[in-house]
Amino acid sequence: MQDEGSWGNVRFRPRRLRGGVDWGDAESRFVAGLIVFLLAALLYPWYEYRVQAWLAARDLQAAMQAMEKEADAAGANARAAVDAVVARQSPGPGDAAPPSIRLMGAMELRNGPLAIVDLGGRALDDAQPLICVRVQETLGTPMGGREVRVQRWRRNAPAVSMGVIRC
User: Fold this and answer.
1) Where do the DSSP E strands lie in the chain?
2) Whole-model pTM over 0.90
3) What residues pair up with 150 in beta bridges, in sequence order?
4) Any bridge partners for residue 116, and if so which?
5) Are 70 and 106 in a shared domain?
6) Does residue 160 belong to any structural domain of this protein?
7) Where in the sequence is the domain holding 104, given as residue range(s)?
8) pLDDT, tens digit, for every residue of 52-90?
9) What is the pLDDT of residues 125-158, one digit of tens each?
10) b/e burial code for range 69-104 (CB count within 10 A of at least 16 → b)
11) Does one domain contain both 110 and 148?
């Protein structure tokens, strides 16, 4: 009979049947995992910077395109408004001025614009639209609703006041 403390009842099986762990394989997997983790930890800030820079550039480009569309639309509206004002204030083909009406000069003074006109014997009321358009072209400011003082041009003599017209 054998004692309970003896080693006689222990059976040794081959290693492949025991299902043991090969520590050499485990260590190599641990080292491979550690290397992958360290590479990911080192490369992540660079990757994040590149992605954020790309996203910011894309957002900025989209914003610029939207602003460009709005600016084009605003420019088109402004051009249309200017064209409408010019068409409304400029004389049409039927409103051509007689050759005898000439604007000899115009200036902006403290109390409003002044025009010196050679009417060629015509009445001031007949020449009013033409005078307004020519003064606007000369001064480069809109005359709509403003009063213009008109003086008659006399060759070598001082100009004489003819009155005030409202454009």
Assistant:
1) 102-109, 112-118, 147-154, 157-166
2) no
3) 115, 163
4) 105, 151
5) no
6) yes
7) 95-166
8) 999 999 999 999 999 999 999 999 999 998 888 888 776
9) 888 888 888 888 888 888 888 899 998 888 888 8
10) eeeeeeeeeeeeeeeeeeeebeeeeeeebeeebbbe
11) yes
